[in-house]
């Protein structure tokens, strides 16, 4: 690390020396920067405190600058861990202040909720619950930050350096998780440094989540030889050895011990040293003592200034540090000169300063007496209030200085929590918990108040009461992925609410039941609802009905038609005391139950009635029952009412975001993805599915993740992105909590579809048959019909006409004759079965299937039917009709972005002697068809090969065996074989020689 080799030890402060060792790390940094020249990369530097991560990030910055690659750097801070997006704001805010990005106004307003430089100081204060702009899903903010990075990276690229991320708040880690899973379409390298023992599991997993874009680089201590080089020739061998043993080769520890010299009253291995006031348990006692000795040697006013700076901020302004230290301006600046001269603090940008290392700040902060520290934070909070600083800035100091019963402090913390609740709910929960600890049990003078937050400087004594704050806390805990804590908060609230307060009790129970479900405690959720219902004598009151439809929803998930119908039979369509929202919610449950019972006409009639009820209600009518309307969307999807379903789900999503009910957003987005996918709008479907899965990860809910990942798998498989489809399918299956509900059966179904579509018919068909074993006890008839059609197609491709006919029989038996989509799939299954024995007849049946599926609006499946018809016509020697159907199929697949099937339809036309021009780059509307290098590469590749398939075909042309290819590409042999099967099919050959010949001609 930094050393004194080949220089005069007293000529300059430690910390400005050449780098010692670190050859592997520097090589890794060079490799990461090389990768950034091609696209996105993520580099994680992992090491213990003081081992040299920050210095290596400095080397990264220097090398980036040498390559003319712009970089921005920020870090998280130990004593400001609750600050939302602290490290990212530290890195980007100054740049944004210099140059406002050219983004739409709505995106700039959204970024203004995070970055102070983009906020509008003239804007009105946010109302309780946040302003409408901030009440959006965090996923939208993450996407906007991604777009911001793409713009900042143009045209030269960008290196974003984030240090000390073990202290980052949850919101920062969620943002990085989004960036590695959905990389910016630009040359961006994100470099993060953190301590492994203090890193959250999600932070530690980012390098793996980044896949091939991610690099994990451990930063190890120096060797003994490097320590000797570090210390220089003036330090004796015995002293070097003693320092090496005491420091363990840690450069910062080594510096701290070396600074002590021999005249500080102790030796490095002396156990009688003073212990020091800082409890740095991960730092050796000798180093703690060395840092304390260093600070103790400062003049009194300089030490006082260091302590004030440690209280003020990680990157502090001298004036604020002076307020904390109670020094006048002249004395403070003189003390600051001493601190910089001793290299305790270093000058930064904008007239601010920072400690040379977070450990030095930690020791300075911990060396203060508890009473002085409390008063110092109070002084800083007061000064910030005088300056008009927002509550989010003051809250950090208020929470460390406020006294029990201080309602002004409570108001400040509540205002801060409400300001960040949607973007950083974990921080909001922290501040609300602090407010609750300060709040006395008795109500404020003048009543509970309206919850308006004070300004932190003056005296409005009214404010929110305990029950109001507990409900807010439960909400932010629910959306921050801390449902366990949220359900305990909700239960605490229930214990405070009297039994006659049935309205608030029912709302609390409903929220608690939703959280129980998200963490897999479905039986506990049901028991809680039933217990509360026993306390309500009148089962037709709005609060009782709210809980009863919660029971219906649980039964629907289990495909328990009897149980759900039994509850619905006891609930009238409406009642005078019900609001429009509850009336619509009850109506929304009925279509799904009727559909599950096979009463299609009744279900459609109920759906239309629910549509009328939903349309008649205003957005504000759905404070408690919005999640129930989601069942109307899913029923409409099963009934083929796709336009209506999308219209409803778009409104639901907007209401959920506007009202902060983000914990139910994932189910809605999954429904939106399903509807768009069935219609062939795959790019939009992929975006909705990605957001649904992201919401699930933010909630840490296996169920919500599975809803999103299931749709990701379906969409990616249709798009031809088989690796992504299989990864999403595996994730969906892994989320099974053993509940036996509908979504746990759907996950293995869609994964099996993905395996079949990837070309592995044997494994895929076996998996699909196993997944269908639940039958109608866990799956709907429409899904089972689709399974039978897929299996008929597989068996036909395997020349097993008899088994294909059996699956076609099953499809026809399962298909609902009232639904064109189901009947169309059954007819397509019959076309598969007849293709070998009666190709002309199969073509006619497939044309019929295409017409039915087109009428139903299911474009991807209609395209598959057209393709089947074209192949059958060709087999029957009917070239004209074959080309007509194949062209129609190709147009459909191109419009939908279904890359593999488009390539197959083109190959079939070429087999008939027709020259088909290569697909235009970026053609179609699929996920990989627009923009980006991957989409262009896929479009430019010969024979419609994917990038991986092209890579494998090239290695085959070079004469590599499957084993050699697997070793070269770090794949399994079986994966290579699967890819090669698709290569054979796309090129239209049956041997490796044919692949080699075709590739040579293409080149």
Terminal-residue CA separation: 50 Å
- The strand count comes to 8
Give the overall shape: flat
Measured by DSSP, the beta-strand proportion falls in under 5%
Helix percent reads: 55-70%
Q: What's the rounded overall pLDDT mean?
A: 85
Number of helices: 48
Structural class of the helices, strands and pairings?
mainly alpha
> Rounded to an integer, what's the Rg over CA atoms?
32 Å
For the largest beta sheet, what order do the strands appear in spatially? 2-3-4-1-5
Largest sheet: 5 strands, parallel
Q: What are the low-pLDDT stretches, counting only 5+ consecutive residues below 50? A: 1-16, 125-135, 262-280, 444-461, 920-939
Give an account of the 3D structure.
It is a single chain. Helix 30 runs antiparallel to helix 31 (665-679) and helix 35 (742-757) packs antiparallel against helix 36 (761-771). The chain is mainly alpha-helical and 1003 residues long. The longest helix has 18 residues, at 642-659. Helix 6 links the parallel strand 3 (158-163) and strand 4 (188-194). The protein has a five-stranded parallel sheet, with helices on both faces.
Task: Please write out the topology.
Blueprint lengths: L22 H14 L4 E6 L6 H14 L4 E5 L10 H13 L6 H8 L25 H16 L4 E6 L6 H12 L6 E7 L6 H4 L1 H4 L4 E5 L5 H8 L5 H11 L3 H10 L24 H12 L3 H13 L2 E2 L1 H8 L3 H13 L3 E3 L5 E3 L2 H9 L3 H17 L4 H8 L8 H14 L4 H14 L27 H14 L3 H14 L5 H17 L3 H13 L7 H16 L3 H8 L11 H17 L3 H17 L9 H13 L3 H18 L5 H15 L2 H18 L2 H18 L2 H13 L7 H16 L3 H11 L9 H17 L3 H14 L5 H15 L4 H18 L2 H17 L3 H18 L2 H13 L20 H9 L6 H11 L4 H8 L3 H15 L4 H11 L1
Parallel strand pairs: 1-4, 1-5, 2-3, 3-4
Antiparallel strand pairs: 6-8, 7-8
